[in-house]
User: Fold this.
Amino acid sequence: MINKPAQATAKPATSRDRQSITFELVARLAPHQALTDNLVRTFGLEPVDYEGIRDATEQHLTLAAKAFETALNDKALQIHLQRITGAYVMSAFGAAQFYGAKKSTALELTSKLLNDERDEDRDGPSGYESKAERARQFAAEMALQSFALMAAAEGAISAYAEVTGETWKPYEAATPAAASVTHKSAAAQMAAFEAA
Assistant:
């Protein structure tokens, strides 16, 4: 007799299993103002105008919504703005995750660089940055990009609230209700008409 390997009984992921991407989640992952100020000073980067980006995004989306006044009814405009705002939040979330990964890479390379037992050259070739230094610079740049995209997401959320009068929440598809016995019975009866 051949024994069959036990099959995994993993259930398929449903929409309820996925984490909703909220602005609060983005704010936890993205750098904050004090950190970006420190990175600007340390790495000699251009500061991010958070308020300017937030306000420009809010004004842009509010003006765009006004342009739709006769073309879309209130519900259609709300759905459109919900999707647009969701795109801004998802973009900021992706940038925050990317920043986190690059920060981790920079920390790892730097800790290897500080290891006294290491036999490799610590500096880059003459006149060039080391790999760790390039990684730190790139992580700092990604931090500022993440911060800028978070500002845009906040502006989009503010525009959504201004236009719709409601607080933006990430879209969650409704889970289909289980078919009742009546629906199953009706479906079976209708299928009988199609049988030859």
